[in-house]
Amino acid sequence: MKLEQLYLLSEAVKCASISGAAKKHYMAQSSISHAISSLEKELQTPLLNRNCTGVAPTATGRAILKEAQVIFKSVHNIEQIAEAQRGHVQVAFACLPCLNDWLVPTTLCRLRKTSPEVAVSTTADNSGTIIDQVTSETVPFGIVIQDADTGQHKGITYQPLFQDQYVLYVGKKSPLYGREMITYADVLKQPYIAYRDEFQKRNGGLTAMIAQQRRPNVQFRTDSLEVMKHLIASDEYVAFFPRYMSQEDAYLKSGAIQRLTVVDQPLTFTVSVVRRRQVTLSTQEEGFIENLDHVIKAAKLNSADLKEGASLSLN
């Protein structure tokens, strides 16, 4: 029995098809089929039920995969120990783009003091895509907006971190600049900049929060938050941004952009760590989350601030 055989069996079950597992790992379908068939022959028992629509584990297959998860975790820990001996340990995760404004950088500064051997790698995306990455094991954990859409996913668990609230960013050329509060009807009249596929498909976050309302008047799309803020500051464009995750933004501090509260639309949300329910994170991964949680608590973020629109400050 080889570790690769167990891993490919696990991947075939996750993808519900051998062809899906082959596509995911850029392998020939025949190679995965042969590896699983060889394992079944060695163990003298079928591990998969195969039909025209895909595959599913047999009762024996499920029991073996449960034990295999312990093996996969042990292998991961061995790799982490080896990396630590070489002087570095990799922590990779996916998060919301605005977290990289100040929460993640502040956490990295703290982490360098407590765990200098840890190297961090992060990718930014919308909540729906991040959850897909977690369930497919592309990343061990992610940081997302927890909403009705994200709750549809099975086999994952959420660890709430803090609450935030979407506010509208406007520049000095916008007719809304200088106001403190607006209605959602005011938003609909403005030229809107959307982030990636926002409002085009159900991908969690803001799209899910206003799913029952008219969509903003999207006139431009981009995958760059910097481009969005530059256009808002220099023209009449508007866009929604999180209040607290973006509070250290240079455009806000300079007065080039102002944030407005939408009074008639509930735009408060919970930011949470998402992970697979049956997978234990490494000591270093748990350590990063603990350091992030410390930064959040040091910022004294609580739900009462959301009602007042108060800004946060780090101790």
Automatic annotation (TrEMBL):
<protein>
    <recommendedName>
        <fullName>HTH lysR-type domain-containing protein</fullName>
    </recommendedName>
</protein>
<keyword id="KW-0804">Transcription</keyword>
<dbReference type="Pfam" id="PF03466">
    <property type="entry name" value="LysR_substrate"/>
</dbReference>
<feature type="domain" description="HTH lysR-type">
    <location>
        <begin position="1"/>
        <end position="58"/>
    </location>
</feature>
<dbReference type="InterPro" id="IPR036388">
    <property type="entry name" value="WH-like_DNA-bd_sf"/>
</dbReference>
<keyword id="KW-0238">DNA-binding</keyword>
<dbReference type="InterPro" id="IPR005119">
    <property type="entry name" value="LysR_subst-bd"/>
</dbReference>
<dbReference type="InterPro" id="IPR000847">
    <property type="entry name" value="LysR_HTH_N"/>
</dbReference>
<dbReference type="GO" id="GO:0003700">
    <property type="term" value="F:DNA-binding transcription factor activity"/>
</dbReference>
<dbReference type="InterPro" id="IPR036390">
    <property type="entry name" value="WH_DNA-bd_sf"/>
</dbReference>
<keyword id="KW-0805">Transcription regulation</keyword>
<dbReference type="GO" id="GO:0000976">
    <property type="term" value="F:transcription cis-regulatory region binding"/>
</dbReference>
<comment type="similarity">
    <text>Belongs to the LysR transcriptional regulatory family.</text>
</comment>
<dbReference type="Pfam" id="PF00126">
    <property type="entry name" value="HTH_1"/>
</dbReference>
